[in-house]
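Reopening this ticket.

The earlier resolution said the output was attached, but the attachment link was broken on my side. Pasting everything inline this time so it's all in one place.
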Amino acid sequence: MENPIERTIPALLTSAGDVANAARRMKDELLLLQNPEAKIRDDIESLASSRDSHETAKTTLRLTQATVRELFETALESLTLARDIFKPRLGKQFGAPWSQLGMPDSLYFPRSAVALQPIVDSYATFLETNPSAEVPSLNITATYFATLFADLAAARSAVKSQELQVALTMQLRDEKAQQLRKRIRGVIDELHMLMEPLDPRWKTFGFNQPGAEQRPDAPENIQVVLVNETTAMIEIPSTPRASYYRVYKRVIGVDAEPVAIGSPSDTDFTQEDLPRKATVEFFVSAVNSGGESALSAPVTVVTQ
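Inline output:
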């Protein structure tokens, strides 16, 4: 049976922890020269640390993005107020006088920080050139808009910088994950030289026994038919590599988990004495010497 290496980082860290624990417990009988426990744990720690750094970088990015959104809303509110105050001076409809405020073709403001930022700068310039248009009590001043422009520019720059940090920490995390996968593959290769393919100690490391039969896939397209009020017939499509099947049922509102009810070797199974007026889910798994597959998708029937 094959021993695929976990692809997701949480599963990889869990699997590697099992391998490291087994290497510690069995160090006196299985000497791993190239991939001892210490090296496995170093690689686990490196991946966990780089994963945490990446998660921290993503959190910081979300915070910087939130700052940009807050500044955008503040800028939009201040620009809207100033625009309405300027209308008696520059006209209630868009025209040439409004061009000096960075509004090229309408009195509506864009809905993105990158497009709004130059307009904030233009308002600051306009008020600096026309101090009589300032309304200090409402923060309609050249100084206020210049500060708002600087804050918005700095916040957007922080987002770009943090986006780069997220990309770099993700790259490092993925490199450390690949290093740990290589380490686990090295352990498997060493164990091949130290143990027979059906040695039960493979399972101590969380690995499949290489000499065991490949575990079957979960059965698909299960059919369940009620043959009377409390009897169901389950038809199981033949599943490659299955030696036999396990049938499970779960009575909704009664069973917390599916309960095994039979292990047929053929593809037909009948379950009698189901509870009346109940909703029942049926599942099937396939089994061989390599183990049991995952459960099939549930099939639901309602008894009479």
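Reporter confirms the inline version is readable. The radius of gyration is 33 Å. The longest helix spans residues 37-90.
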